[in-house]
Predict the structure.
Amino acid sequence: MNMAGNHLNSQIRAFILEKFPLARKQQLKNSDALLESGILDSLGVLDLVSFVEREFSIAVSDDELVPENFHTIDRIVAFIESKSTRTT
Amino acid sequence: MTTIFVRPVDLESDSQELLSILQTNLPDLPHARRFDWLYRGNPDGPAWSWFICEPSGRAVGVASLFPRSMWVGDKREMCGQVGDFAVAASHRSLGPALLLQRATFSPVERGELAFCYDCPPHQAGMSTFRRLGMRPNCRIDRYALPMRVDVRVRKNMGVTSPIPVALGNLLLRLGRRWRNKGGTSSLEVGEHVGHFGEEFSQLDVSLQRANVIRGRRTGTVLNWRYREDPLQRYEVLTARRKGELTAFIVLKTTNQVVTIVDLFGTGLPESAYSLLASVSERYERSHQTLEAHLAAESELVGYFSNMGFRLRSEAARVVAYAKPKSEMSALLQGSPIWAFNQAEIRV
């Protein structure tokens, strides 16, 4: 992961740790399944998406709200990077 | 980049897959036992259901819409209630739920239903609506009337002596009697056993009111809902004046709690007080609490409060969808009175 990716990763991780108590209870890894583990539910995804849209100035469409984009921290970072690349 | 898709469920050929998803994701109910009754036996029509599927075609979620005949003011309208909404944990990324939620709007878009509504019991259930920019049309609250203190005293105080419990129960009973003292009535209250007949349909027709939205309570609907439900037994009390039906109350009981599922009728202050007093006398020795779910703007709230019921928590919210820019949409946005109780919010 490059430096930008690392920074993104830290921001996403900090947000998840701050907002979702279940994430604090376990040693959250970048590859942990956020949905299956119950760390994120649909309301959590909604909060996360609002954060991502606000923080990184990208728009997330409904059909991008799929598990492959929000399954893990790694996937979220990859998704944001791909969106940023497309808009620059 | 949609990699998932929605498809309609065939209630014949897809029923096992539908039941499997429900049982896995909503395990508290024995879905197979109620499937025929709920999905195919509803007198208002069979359910619409949709799967959310992976690209492979494997279904990972389902939502259903159960037709429901309603009174909207003085008009009978066929509406739909969203229910049995389940998405596999691995797919709770909001997108799949959004697609399903939109699918439940499709019969409304096609003009087959006047509107549909959902009653999310918790904030997480509001996530799709928040994303869609929809707000609740009304709030449903849980009210409770304590009838006994046995469980509370033992749990909170660890007291095992019968004296504080007996004293507490006596005080509660005296309080209810005091509230009921003005409630002497010429109404005859009795248990209704057997089927609901034409008199219930007539009562339903006699009670439409401008700007009020509520479910219809024809004899046919009541029989299906309360006499044919394969999972739940209900008790029904009626209030009559000189033999003529004026109101009825529907109850379900668990070990500790009596839940008022429905209270409906004419001359409500008097008939409501008579029925509620009768229920509390009936169960004050065997159950801890009487409970009811009422829409915030329901006229019943005042009557229940006068009988000692107290607001305990928010139980659900009603979110309705009508075709944009339609008359119904304007009506729903114009703050109608949602005369909802559990009869309308339980699927």
Notes: The CA atoms of residues 227 and 312 of chain B lie 29 Å apart. Chain B has two domains: 5-135, 141-345.
